[in-house]
Amino acid sequence: MVSVYAIGWAGASRRLNPHGAIGTRTRRRCYVLAMGEPAGGISGVVPAALRVGRSPAAVVLALVRSAGPVTRDRLALHSDLSTATVNRQVHALAGAELIVERPDLVDGGGIGRPKVPLTLNHEGLAVAAMHIGARRTLLAIADLAGRTLHSHAVLTPDGDPVEVIGILADALAELISRFSGRRFLWAGVAVGGDVDETTGAVDHPVLGWRGAPVGAMVNQALGLPVSVCEHVQAMAAAELVLAPPVGGAVPGRSSIYWYARETVGMALTVDGHVQVPRTGAGTVAHVPVRAPLFGPSGIGPSGIGTVGLQQVIGTSALRGAMRRSGSAAESSLVEERARALGEAIATIADVLNPDTVIVAGDAFANHPRGLAPVQAAFDAARHLPHRLELTPTRFGLGVQEAAAVVVALSVIYADPIGSVG
């Protein structure tokens, strides 16, 4: 594994060891690396825009991203926009350097005046992204299309949150410094817990953070606008924005997104918009499930084997259940966890009645029979007549990376001219 050096210290540098852990030398004053001017005059912490952009500029940018290289007339053909409106948006997006003309791709065999194709500015622009997990933190650089140019994971350090955030922010700054030929537009952070999207402050019970200044410190370290988002909401946005359904999003459709790894969470998407309550993300950690093997001495608090869903999720829960039961094999615990997940998802799905249910995380992926046991438990617990198939995330093992990248790109995608132009 390649060692990574976190540059940005007054008279010092820090090295990430070959196992991904970051050293814990006392943090010193960080200086801002030269990474280009902030986008569009916007600075500080900006709430993520977890939705499909609907402005004319957003529609044109999305079409260029998904269909490029593409000509102006085809943009008008595949949208509800007039040719004049398309031309105005192309002019504005090109002025903001988000799209470029590609005369080298002109089809010389056509009739009449050659039509110059348009593409995203893949080569000149980039965003920086970070997913802070309970055990590991992923750092990534992506281009304007959301394609990852580089990513690697490090162990999330223990200790004071200000120290930890500073270490991680400086590691991301060092990674940005390797891409000196690109102009960085934005930074995005996806993280578990309760996120104040306006200030970027984070309460993370697993890490012991309360009011941790994630947004402010990443902004200070990188000198870029930064968005901070609850990670399950960000994962739902990635499905919506980075990997839209074939044929585009269907108006009025809804989906629920479940993530279960070391923690468990859920997000709701309606009509191309991830729902972000004013008071922050809700929780499904307390949803009661029948899982007697995971309760104290094999019996849950209610005496009939009922525990909160979080008590069956993660490595610690599995090891604790094995230690308490003594006789329960790991395979039995994995089966019980799959059943508990399926029943919990069915309970919420019966209430919300979504069009689709998307699932991600090791708790779904690590069963020897894949998603089948969760689907079987879900089907058995459903009370609505129509069958609903659980759909795995389209990002596979890269779901955390996609979540971080979409947070970095979301404001640009939703309002390209206002954010960058």
From TrEMBL:
Gene3D superfamilies: 3.30.420.40, Winged helix-like DNA-binding domain superfamily/Winged helix DNA-binding domain. Pfam families: ROK. It comes from the Bacteria. InterPro entries: ATPase_NBD, ROK, WH-like_DNA-bd_sf, WH_DNA-bd_sf. Belongs to the ROK (NagC/XylR) family. This is ROK family protein.
